[in-house]
Amino acid sequence: MGMRKNRRIEITVSHQRLNVLEDYKIVFSTPVSTALRGLGCESGSLKTPPGNFVVSEKFGDGEPVGTIFRGRIATGEMAESNSPEDQITSRILWLDGVEPSNANTKGRYIYIHGTNDEARLGAPVSHGCIRLANTAIIDLFDLVETGTSVTIA
Q1: Beta-bridge partners for 8
Q2: Percent of the chain residues past pLDDT 70, beyond the cut
Q3: What's the pLDDT at 1?
Q4: Which of 6, 7, 62, 125 has the fewest CB atoms within 10 Å of its CB?
Q5: Residues ≥6 apart with Cβ < 8 Å to 83
Q6: How many CB atoms lie within 10 A of CB 49?
Q7: What is the mean pLDDT of the chain?
Q8: Phi–psi pair at 135, nearest 5 degrees
Q9: Is residue 151 exposed (0-12), middle (13-18) or buried (19+ Cβ within 10 Å)?
């Protein structure tokens, strides 16, 4: 599978930041938005699950920056920053929990994804997912493969 030098994703909720580490060195860093309601694994809680995960699937390769996804399918529509809708844009990394406490993560549709609400990155405002700027999610998408480990703490 050719995993690149132990590359992994660490999301620090207290700092609203995502880092990609390669052999303990940060090779990519960007602000994020995690859940407004904090950390938790309960279905329907709108919380970001903590713990260890893997990137189970990737969606959006080659789509234009700002493309809106519905049901992980590119709609051909472009994000609008003034839309009240929480849009999933540009790329999707679908997380799967690897611990008993967060094993329901994939079924909760917890993603790392681009957002139309870039102005509020750095503050916890999401409905459970991890939101990134559109250019940042595209860079991240290209840096990591399915199977990459993710830690949220």
Answers
A1: 21, 149
A2: 97
A3: 47
A4: 62
A5: 116
A6: 24
A7: 95
A8: -70, -35
A9: middle
